[in-house]
Amino acid sequence: MTGSSLLDIPGVGKNMAEHLESLGIFRIEDLRGQDPQEMYDRDCAMHGYQDRCVLYVYRCAVYFAQTPNPDPEKCKWWNWKDGCVEPKE
């Protein structure tokens, strides 16, 4: 991980960064120890239904924040779909 901006997270663009900021997450470090499912549930409560891909991005982002040398394949949000991989790091 080279920077601390949310935009440095693979799969996070301006829109997703705004979602994270609405959850009180402003830096990569803020994602450490977060529960992606809880983040998704809060996002839905605040903004209405969100596509499941938002949850997959949250899973990927938390993995990226908590892993010193993230696996490049696990840095692709679509690899965090239900049943693909589970964040263990």
Give structural notes.
By secondary structure, the chain is mostly helical. It has one domain. The protein has three helices and no strands. The radius of gyration is 12 Å and the shape is globular.
Structure in a nutshell:
This protein is mainly alpha-helical and 89 residues long.
Query: How many alpha or pi helices?
Result: 3
Radius of gyration of CA atoms, rounded to a whole number:
12 Å
Tally of separate domains: 1
- Runs in which pLDDT lies below 50 for 5 or more consecutive residues are none
Topology of this structure?
Elements: H1 14-22, H2 36-47, H3 52-66
Features:
single chain, 3 helices, mainly alpha, 89 residues, globular
